[in-house]
Write a structure and sequence with these properties.
Blueprint (H helix, E strand, L loop, with lengths): L2 H32 L7 H26 L6
Helix pairs in contact: 1-2
Length: 73
């Protein structure tokens, strides 16, 4: 078995999962901040939330692109 490749895949999985979770939690946090009634400009924070959710979706779609063999032919 090639242990270096196994460690590379495990490391890439760990980093990508941490990135997706961080982006999603930032999106949820910005959404909660934008819903606060005392904010002066909630539109900016809501747009940051949508950007975080968008990057999270792009990361998930890229992972699916790498996993599904039909797309890599």
């Amino acid at each position: 078995m090639k242990w270096l490749e196994l460690l590379t895949v495990a490391g890439a999985t760990l980093v990508s999962a941490a990135i997706v979770v961080t982006l999603y939690s930032l999106g949820v946090r910005f959404t909660a901040i934008a819903a606060d009634a005392q904010q002066a400009s909630p539109g900016v924070k809501r747009s940051f939330a949508y950007v975080c959710f968008g990057f999270c979706g792009v990361a998930v779609l890229f992972g699916l692109y790498l996993i599904i063999p039909y797309f890599t032919k």
